[in-house]
Amino acid sequence: MKIAVFSAKPYDKEFLDQADRGRRHELVFFETHLNAATVRLANGFDAVCVFVNDDLSREVILGLSKNGVKLIALRCAGFNNVDLSQAKASGIVVARVPAYAPHGVAEHAVGLILALNRKICRAYNRVRDGNFSIDGLLGFELYGKTVGVMGTGKIGAIFAGIMKGFGCRILAYDVHVNPECEALGVRYVSTEEIFKQCDIISLHLPLNKQTYHIINDDALLKMKTGVMLINTSRGGLVDSACLVEGLKSGKIGYLGLDVYEEEESMFFEDLSGQAIYDDTFVRIETFPNVIITGHQAFFTDAALRNIAQTTLYNIEGFEKGGVDPVNLVASH
Ligand code: NAD
Q1: Catalytic residue among 263, 269, 283, 316
Q2: Does 109 sit in the ligand 1 pocket, CB within 6 Å?
Q3: Which domain holds residue 115?
């Protein structure tokens, strides 16, 4: 098949080429995102292969359909950026990679917690500068703290298990109870109880209509003063405007983000020589109790291998007449 790979980085090319060893497909790599301005690049391709910040809105899908594209192969689990009803209406199949790095993402969330709590970035910079003072680096013990896990699917369940290992008490919120978590002693409660009781809250929900801005002014009001908030899931779960006020007032004691609501125009690009135009983002970054990483939680060798292999498996399934239902998001 002829596949246009959008938002392609050198590592995408390396792992996809490796997975397509027999060179069965014609993979053409485009660095640019897929959006209304670039959709014409897909002309003559059977499939597009896209990532988290590609735009698959109604307009773009109509463009893909006009260009003869029949398959959208997502290199990720989340599909909040795809207008599924338009894909169906246009007869375009949508496939994804549902679980490529659950351990990697959960471990990254824990990494943010440890770095924030023990102020590892600040300590690193001090020692590099010959400043061995530990004043201002006071941390707390995770042992005995209450951790709220919002979303106990694949990633949330692994995260809960790791935090359990630190001796934390785990509360969870999800529309489905995960028996694995119950076996760990995780207690399912309402969002209200999560907000009220937890010292650390980590988000592992998908972004959808129900979860959009689940963390907002109202939610913050209900949280403990000094709460640690971790988001490695999707930026839209958190109303970024409320973060600045939350940090200024001290309501949020620690903030760890791997995703950001308006990340599309920034993340995955080297903008070190340019101005950053998102004032909220820039303001959030000024707080010493914030660590932001640029959507790298998934970024492990195992995940890239898994993403590439599953993407080609989806493409080949489509070719043979049907994508594996486990990976199918929308069919015509
Ligand atoms: P999953 O589908 O296994 O788990 C999601 C959980 O959320 C499920 O248990 C589901 O019941 C629950 N849920 C869904 N809608 C809900 C709602 N409205 N209210 C309460 N619970 C709800 O997903 P996963 O593999 O654990 O991934 C979670 C998210 O992590 C993904 O959706 C993706 O956005 C994000 N992610 C981020 C990265 C990264 O690099 N930062 C990498 C992979 C995934």
Answers
A1: 263
A2: no
A3: 102-292
Q: Determine the residue of 173, 203, 207, 233 to mutate for testing ligand 1's pocket, defined as the one with the most ligand atoms within 8 A of the Cβ atom.
A: 233
Q: Count other Cβ atoms within 10 Å, centred on residue 190.
A: 10
Regarding whether 221 and 123 lie in a shared domain, the answer is yes
Q: What is the CATH number of the domain that holds 33?
A: 3.40.50.720
Portion of the chain with pLDDT greater than 70, in percent = 100
Q: Which helix (H) or strand (E) holds 255?
A: strand 252-257
Number of domains in the chain: 2
* 232-274 tens-digit pLDDT: 999 999 999 999 999 999 999 999 999 999 998 899 999 999 9
- Please state the atom number of ligand 1 nearest to the C-alpha of residue 155: 26
* Mean pLDDT for the chain overall: 96
The tokens of 323 are what? 């994508």
CA distance 108 to 104: 6
Phi and psi at 194, nearest 5°, equal -60, -50
Q: Report the pLDDT averaged over residues 128-152.
A: 98
pLDDT band per the 50, 70, 90 thresholds, residue 22:
confident
- Three-class SS of residue 49? strand
Q: Which atom of ligand 1 is nearest to the CA of 178?
A: 9
Q: Has 285 been annotated as catalytic?
A: no
Q: Could you give the count of Cα atoms lying within 13 Å of 212 in the half-sphere of its Cβ?
A: 5
The model's confidence at residue 315, banded by pLDDT at 50, 70 and 90, is: very high
The best mutation among 150, 194, 204, 307 to test binding of ligand 1, ranked by most ligand atoms within 8 Å of the C-beta, falls on: 204
Residue 80 sits in the same domain as residue 188 = no
- Whether 193 is catalytic is no
Q: To which H or E segment does residue 4 belong? A: strand 2-5
